[in-house]
Amino acid sequence: MQIQVKDEIHTVVFMLNNSVAAESLYNQLPFKIRVENYGNNEKIFYPPTKLNTTDTPSAEGPAGTLAYFEPWGNVVMYYGSFGRYRGLYDLGTAISGGEHIRKLTGEISVTKISE
């Protein structure tokens, strides 16, 4: 499963893992939503419905990681490295355009990429 996150200028492609949470996000696509800055290493957005995190691995790692923060119900796109945090689940990794995560602004479209 691959998804594309795009604003008016920048595009990032993520390869989702085979987790229940990643599939839960994938099944909600497509949608348009506002991206927000959070902290000094991530961009976030809130999917229309909360994701099912059953049997989904915890997230910890490098820039380019796509994760879900269950307590707040937001998807996190990391442009800097990060550590393990309770309630943070791994959804996948940027395979193209990861360097643009930091630059995403305003309304983004999140869509499936045909396989």
TrEMBL record:
Superkingdom field: Bacteria
SUPFAM superfamilies per record: Cyclophilin-like
Record domain Cyclophilin-like: where: 10-111
InterPro entries per UniProt: Cyclophilin-like, Cyclophilin-like_dom_sf
Protein name (record): Cyclophilin-like
Originating species: Trichococcus patagoniensis
